[in-house]
Amino acid sequence: GHGLHAAATMGRLRTAVHNFSSLDLPPDELLGHLDELVTRLEQDAVAADDRTTIAGATCLYAIYDSVTRNCVMARAGHPAPALVRPDGTVEFLDVPAGLPLGIGGLPFESTELELPEGSRLVLFTDGLVERRDQDIDTGLRLLSETLAYPEHSPEETCEAVLDALLPELQSDDIALLVARTRVLGAGQVAEWEVESDPAAVRRVRSDVSERLTEWGLEDLVETTELILSELLTNAMRHGAGPINVRLIRDRTLICEVFDHSSTSPHLRYAATMDEGGRGLFLVAQVAERWGTRYTEDGKVIWAEQTAPETPAD
C-alpha cells in the first residue's frame, strides 16, 4: 500500500519486528510471530468496526553472521532479494515465498546460504520492478543489468538503481536497501573447547585474559572473566557437553558459550540466604546486553560489552 495509513501501519510492524528480533529468533519463527500479531490486529479491527487493514503486508527478514559468512532468511510474500557477487554476477535468491502477513496462518520456511565476502545483498519492494506499463520480468531484468557493476559501493548501487528504474510518475511506494557483506578477520575471533569440569573454568579464564590483553582490551578483563565464569558454570550445571567458548572483537566485545542443551536459562533474583541463582543477574549487571540463541543441536548464551576502539586486524 501507500499513503499515510500505510506508513503508520509499517511503523507498527517495524516496532514489532524490532521487539521480536531482540529474542534472537530464527527468521521463520519471527515471521510466524509477526503473522499471528497481524491476524490478531485484524480481528480486533473487525470487532471494533474499523475498516483499516494491516493484513497483506509483506516482509523479508535476514540474519547475517560475519564470522561464518552464513546468511539465513525467510520471506512473507516479499520479493526475493538479489545477490551481487564480488565478480558482478547477479542472481535472485531462491527463498520460499510464504504468504503475506495475516493471510494464511501457515508456517514459513527459512533458507540458509553462504555469502562471499564483499557481496552486495539487495532488498527491494515490488514497486521498484513492477508497474502498469511494465511487467515484473522486464523490471527484474533491468535491475539485474544495473546491479552488475562489482566496483560500485552500496550508495552508488542505490543511485544507479533508482536512476534506471524509478518511474517518472510514481504510483507506489518504493524501498531499496543495499548491504555489503564483510567478514571478521581470524585475529578478531578466539575459540576454546572446554571440558565439563569446574577446574577448566580457571584455565579458560587465563587464556581469555591473555587474548584480551593482546587485543588491547585490558579494561574488560575483569568483567569478561566474571561473565565467562558465570556462563560456563551455568552450562556445566544445567547444560550438556561439549561446551565451547567464543570471543568476538568487533565494535563491541561478545562472549559466547555454546552447549548441547536446549534448556532456556532464566534471570531470577536470589533471596538473601540463597546459595545460588545470582549468575545471570551478575551477567546482566556488567554486560550491555545478553541473550540466548538456539541452534540445531543446542544453544548459545551470549553477553555483549562496549569495547574501546582498537585497530582491526
Automatic annotation (TrEMBL):
It holds the Pfam family SpoIIE. Residues 1-181 form the PPM-type phosphatase domain. Keywords: Hydrolase. It comes from the Bacteria. CDD domains: HATPase_RsbW-like (cd16936). GO terms for molecular function: phosphatase activity. The keyword Hydrolase applies. The keyword Hydrolase applies. Gene3D superfamilies: Histidine kinase-like ATPase, C-terminal domain (3.30.565.10), PPM-type phosphatase domain (3.60.40.10). InterPro entries: Bact_Sigma-Reg (IPR052016), HATPase_C_sf (IPR036890), HATPase_dom (IPR003594), PPM-type-like_dom_sf (IPR036457), PPM-type_phosphatase-like_dom (IPR001932). This is PPM-type phosphatase domain-containing protein.
